[in-house]
Amino acid sequence: MKKKQATRQTIQKIRDSIPLEERKTKTQKIAERFYGLKEYCNAKNILLYYPFRSEIDTTVIIARAIADGKRVILPRVSGKILQLFYVEDYKKDLRPGTYGIMEPDEDSCVPAKYTDPDLAVIPGVCFDKYKNRIGYGGGFYDRLIPKLKKNIPKIALCFQIQIIDSVPVFAHDIKVDKVVSENESF
Fold this sequence. Notes:
The chain is an alpha/beta fold. Helix content is 27%, strand content 24%.
Protein backbone atom coordinates (compact mmCIF):
# COMPACT_ATOMS: atom_id res chain seq x y z
CA MET A 1 0.00 0.00 0.00
CA LYS A 2 2.89 2.37 0.77
CA LYS A 3 4.44 1.71 -2.64
CA LYS A 4 1.12 2.54 -4.30
CA GLN A 5 0.82 5.81 -2.35
CA ALA A 6 4.41 6.79 -3.14
CA THR A 7 3.89 6.02 -6.84
CA ARG A 8 0.64 8.03 -6.81
CA GLN A 9 2.37 11.06 -5.28
CA THR A 10 5.37 10.89 -7.62
CA ILE A 11 3.30 10.67 -10.79
CA GLN A 12 0.96 13.44 -9.66
CA LYS A 13 3.93 15.75 -9.08
CA ILE A 14 5.33 14.94 -12.52
CA ARG A 15 1.93 15.45 -14.15
CA ASP A 16 1.43 18.72 -12.25
CA SER A 17 4.74 19.96 -13.66
CA ILE A 18 3.55 19.79 -17.29
CA PRO A 19 3.00 23.40 -18.42
CA LEU A 20 -0.64 24.28 -19.18
CA GLU A 21 -0.07 24.90 -22.92
CA GLU A 22 1.72 21.57 -23.27
CA ARG A 23 -1.17 19.83 -21.43
CA LYS A 24 -3.62 21.44 -23.87
CA THR A 25 -1.61 20.26 -26.90
CA LYS A 26 -1.28 16.74 -25.52
CA THR A 27 -4.96 16.65 -24.55
CA GLN A 28 -5.89 17.44 -28.14
CA LYS A 29 -3.72 14.57 -29.42
CA ILE A 30 -5.23 12.17 -26.89
CA ALA A 31 -8.75 13.31 -27.79
CA GLU A 32 -8.11 12.78 -31.52
CA ARG A 33 -6.86 9.24 -30.84
CA PHE A 34 -9.93 8.60 -28.68
CA TYR A 35 -12.39 9.83 -31.36
CA GLY A 36 -10.84 7.37 -33.81
CA LEU A 37 -11.44 4.32 -31.60
CA LYS A 38 -14.19 1.91 -32.64
CA GLU A 39 -15.35 1.93 -29.02
CA TYR A 40 -16.04 5.67 -29.26
CA CYS A 41 -17.60 5.45 -32.72
CA ASN A 42 -19.97 2.66 -31.65
CA ALA A 43 -20.93 4.15 -28.27
CA LYS A 44 -24.27 5.85 -27.72
CA ASN A 45 -23.98 6.50 -23.95
CA ILE A 46 -20.51 7.39 -22.68
CA LEU A 47 -19.51 7.55 -19.05
CA LEU A 48 -16.88 10.28 -18.74
CA TYR A 49 -15.49 12.30 -15.84
CA TYR A 50 -14.81 15.97 -15.25
CA PRO A 51 -11.07 16.81 -15.14
CA PHE A 52 -9.40 17.07 -11.76
CA ARG A 53 -6.20 19.04 -11.13
CA SER A 54 -3.73 18.43 -13.97
CA GLU A 55 -5.58 15.56 -15.67
CA ILE A 56 -6.23 15.73 -19.39
CA ASP A 57 -9.00 18.22 -20.12
CA THR A 58 -11.94 15.88 -20.62
CA THR A 59 -14.27 18.85 -21.21
CA VAL A 60 -12.96 18.79 -24.80
CA ILE A 61 -14.18 15.20 -25.13
CA ILE A 62 -17.45 15.88 -23.30
CA ALA A 63 -18.26 18.74 -25.70
CA ARG A 64 -17.34 16.69 -28.79
CA ALA A 65 -19.33 13.66 -27.65
CA ILE A 66 -22.43 15.83 -27.15
CA ALA A 67 -21.85 17.47 -30.56
CA ASP A 68 -21.54 13.97 -32.08
CA GLY A 69 -24.99 13.10 -30.74
CA LYS A 70 -23.78 10.84 -27.96
CA ARG A 71 -25.35 10.92 -24.51
CA VAL A 72 -22.81 11.89 -21.87
CA ILE A 73 -22.99 10.51 -18.36
CA LEU A 74 -20.94 12.01 -15.52
CA PRO A 75 -20.52 10.78 -11.94
CA ARG A 76 -21.50 12.51 -8.72
CA VAL A 77 -20.00 11.46 -5.37
CA SER A 78 -22.59 10.34 -2.84
CA GLY A 79 -20.91 9.05 0.30
CA LYS A 80 -18.65 6.21 -0.82
CA ILE A 81 -20.33 5.61 -4.20
CA LEU A 82 -20.68 7.34 -7.53
CA GLN A 83 -24.15 8.15 -8.78
CA LEU A 84 -24.51 8.67 -12.53
CA PHE A 85 -26.35 11.47 -14.36
CA TYR A 86 -26.92 12.46 -17.97
CA VAL A 87 -25.43 15.85 -18.81
CA GLU A 88 -26.64 17.85 -21.80
CA ASP A 89 -24.60 21.04 -21.28
CA TYR A 90 -21.58 20.66 -19.03
CA LYS A 91 -21.26 24.45 -18.68
CA LYS A 92 -24.77 24.74 -17.20
CA ASP A 93 -25.53 21.33 -15.68
CA LEU A 94 -22.60 21.03 -13.25
CA ARG A 95 -21.90 22.39 -9.76
CA PRO A 96 -18.82 22.14 -7.52
CA GLY A 97 -19.06 18.90 -5.59
CA THR A 98 -16.95 16.66 -3.42
CA TYR A 99 -13.21 17.35 -3.63
CA GLY A 100 -13.99 20.53 -5.59
CA ILE A 101 -14.70 18.53 -8.75
CA MET A 102 -17.55 19.72 -10.94
CA GLU A 103 -20.45 17.25 -10.71
CA PRO A 104 -23.92 16.96 -12.21
CA ASP A 105 -26.55 19.04 -10.43
CA GLU A 106 -29.01 16.40 -9.27
CA ASP A 107 -31.85 18.94 -9.48
CA SER A 108 -31.38 19.55 -13.22
CA CYS A 109 -29.77 16.36 -14.54
CA VAL A 110 -31.54 13.09 -15.29
CA PRO A 111 -30.24 10.10 -13.31
CA ALA A 112 -28.61 7.31 -15.33
CA LYS A 113 -28.65 3.63 -14.46
CA TYR A 114 -25.35 1.84 -13.95
CA THR A 115 -26.23 -0.30 -16.96
CA ASP A 116 -26.83 2.69 -19.29
CA PRO A 117 -23.23 3.42 -20.40
CA ASP A 118 -21.86 1.38 -23.29
CA LEU A 119 -18.39 2.91 -22.95
CA ALA A 120 -16.66 3.94 -19.72
CA VAL A 121 -13.73 6.34 -19.60
CA ILE A 122 -11.93 5.59 -16.34
CA PRO A 123 -9.65 8.10 -14.60
CA GLY A 124 -6.37 7.25 -12.93
CA VAL A 125 -3.09 8.66 -11.75
CA CYS A 126 -0.99 6.10 -13.62
CA PHE A 127 -1.18 2.95 -15.68
CA ASP A 128 1.15 0.18 -16.81
CA LYS A 129 1.51 -1.80 -20.04
CA TYR A 130 -0.68 -4.52 -18.52
CA LYS A 131 -3.53 -1.96 -18.20
CA ASN A 132 -3.42 -1.90 -14.41
CA ARG A 133 -4.20 1.45 -12.83
CA ILE A 134 -3.64 3.46 -9.72
CA GLY A 135 -6.55 5.75 -8.95
CA TYR A 136 -6.71 8.56 -6.44
CA GLY A 137 -7.12 6.22 -3.47
CA GLY A 138 -10.84 6.51 -2.74
CA GLY A 139 -11.83 3.27 -4.48
CA PHE A 140 -14.80 4.94 -6.19
CA TYR A 141 -14.16 3.38 -9.60
CA ASP A 142 -13.21 -0.02 -8.16
CA ARG A 143 -16.71 -0.01 -6.60
CA LEU A 144 -18.40 1.45 -9.72
CA ILE A 145 -16.96 -0.78 -12.46
CA PRO A 146 -18.56 -4.05 -11.20
CA LYS A 147 -21.98 -2.31 -11.36
CA LEU A 148 -21.57 -1.47 -15.06
CA LYS A 149 -22.50 -3.86 -17.89
CA LYS A 150 -20.30 -6.92 -17.82
CA ASN A 151 -18.42 -6.41 -21.10
CA ILE A 152 -18.40 -2.61 -21.25
CA PRO A 153 -15.15 -1.26 -22.74
CA LYS A 154 -13.14 0.57 -20.08
CA ILE A 155 -10.71 3.10 -21.54
CA ALA A 156 -8.16 5.25 -19.72
CA LEU A 157 -6.94 8.56 -21.14
CA CYS A 158 -3.62 9.83 -19.84
CA PHE A 159 -0.41 11.63 -20.63
CA GLN A 160 2.50 9.41 -21.69
CA ILE A 161 4.35 10.27 -18.46
CA GLN A 162 1.56 8.52 -16.54
CA ILE A 163 2.43 5.16 -18.10
CA ILE A 164 4.94 3.33 -15.94
CA ASP A 165 6.61 -0.09 -16.07
CA SER A 166 4.61 -1.72 -13.30
CA VAL A 167 1.71 -0.75 -11.06
CA PRO A 168 1.34 -2.46 -7.66
CA VAL A 169 -1.86 -4.52 -7.87
CA PHE A 170 -4.23 -5.79 -5.19
CA ALA A 171 -7.13 -8.26 -5.50
CA HIS A 172 -9.80 -5.52 -5.60
CA ASP A 173 -8.06 -3.53 -8.38
CA ILE A 174 -9.75 -3.60 -11.78
CA LYS A 175 -7.84 -3.23 -15.06
CA VAL A 176 -8.92 -1.08 -17.96
CA ASP A 177 -9.28 -2.52 -21.45
CA LYS A 178 -7.32 0.17 -23.28
CA VAL A 179 -4.96 3.01 -22.43
CA VAL A 180 -4.71 6.04 -24.73
CA SER A 181 -1.94 8.65 -24.46
CA GLU A 182 -0.70 11.31 -26.83
CA ASN A 183 1.87 8.81 -28.19
CA GLU A 184 0.13 5.44 -28.21
CA SER A 185 -2.92 3.28 -27.62
CA PHE A 186 -2.67 -0.25 -26.27
